[in-house]
Amino acid sequence: MDARPRASLRRVLEDLGSTVLDVAASPGDLDAEVTGVHIHDPLDEPSLQEGALVLAVGVDSAERVRALLDAAGPAAGIVVKQPVEVDEPLRAKVRETGVAVLGLTRAASWAQVAALLRSLLAELRDPLLDESPDGLFSLANAVCALLDAPVTIEDRSSRVLAYSERQEEADPGRVATVLGRQVPERYRRMLEEGGVFRRLYQSREPIYIELHDEGINRAAVAVRSGDEVLGSIWAAVREPLSEQRRRALADAAKIVALQLLRQRAGADTSRRLRADLLSTVLAGGGDAAEAAGRLGVASERLCVLAAQLTEEAYDDAARLESDRQRFCDALALHVAAIHPKAAAALVGSVAYAVLPLQAGGQEEARAVRVAESFLTRVGPRHAANTGVGRLAADLAEVARSRADADRALRVLRARGASGQAAGYTSVHFEALLLQFSDLVRAEKQAPNGPYERLLAYDAEHGSELVATLRAYLDAFGDVNAAAARVHVHANTFRYRLKRLTEIGGLDLSDPDARLSVMLQMRIFGR
């Protein structure tokens, strides 16, 4: 008898929630088993496995959906982008074929939903291993019993994922490793310089490492998935392993690899689902309330935080992607410790957090302090900035708070800042200037009027009229202060000022003329 759990269409919809997939037309029950994901190509002959979930890319009318239902045969369901055109002939065809029609939210991409569904189906169908971290600790204890030696399971960065009993029998280095959940830097450097990691990752068999005066020797084996090294198993032993125990350690590495892959797949699925739900909350549309309920976040008095790593510090794309996720995980823990109904997820390259705040005034300032505290905590490991949006009274205003946070974050990037947090209110004018700059670039506008004439004159004659004007405006018309800024005598400055008004045709007594030229200076940056 096959005890494998069925990945039914109903179970898939329950796990993803109606914010991602919703039923547009149902044949009745939704108990059909989903066996895989198929991307529909109208140029190919239909070749579907029974129970396939068909992603109908580009199918946008009831007539085309009916034609696909006729060709879908044994499929479990057809997914089309919302809004789904459902008429009575389509409902009749759904009842006739027994194939459900589902609507996919327009915010989701086909690539995202394909990856999400495949990960979810793999998770629902593969019950071989325990998903929880406790499963790794159980494996460590089992390996300990097989080898008669205390064991640790570590990742590629020598962080301890799990450890067995009997660690007190090992040396001080192992005790420090377990207590710190990381191999101490001194020992890691010693292993690197001795070529141990190179030997370990190049070998598919266990290796024996003599530590001499540094402690008890080690037997270790790399944990692999194909050519990818996921981590390693380390046993503290006093002599080389017997052939039987070497084989036991090598076999254990295969089981640990399955466990690590399952945990990674489960974590990736969970993260993608949380990111999709949080994206729905941040959009603030009609599905925001359901998404907030599924995430368990508050629906009133919210501030959005947008945090992003300073990417200029990275030259390795893989390391950047890995650090982004760790950075987001740290943000999620930080806001959850402040409020149990907070949530965070990585959306693109930005880690967003929705933070509920109690009444009391100055909510944006309090959220900025939360962001500053977070950046201080992660600063030694991650250089980053955080923008904070204005308070949203309810979910309908969350989209505005998210836009505020994005704009504040953009201002910090434009400043070249790192390790800083800013509320939208405090950078409002700079954010507006950036928006003006976007509009100017989109419309391919160029400097005009007096400012254009002054730029052209400076370029032709090598003069400093624009710099003179900038100093004058920055000093609020104080000639002596402005002259000191450009290091000339006040009389020389007055002469240049007279010349630029004549050449540019600029009336400095007109506040609109002053504002126009000041804005052009800021936007065009010349």
From TrEMBL:
Residues 287-411 form the CdaR GGDEF-like domain. It comes from the Bacteria. InterPro entries: CdaR-like_regulators, CdaR_GGDEF, PucR_C-HTH_dom, PucR_C-HTH_sf. Residues 465-523 form the PucR C-terminal helix-turn-helix domain. Belongs to the CdaR family. This is Helix-turn-helix domain-containing protein. It comes from Microbispora maris.
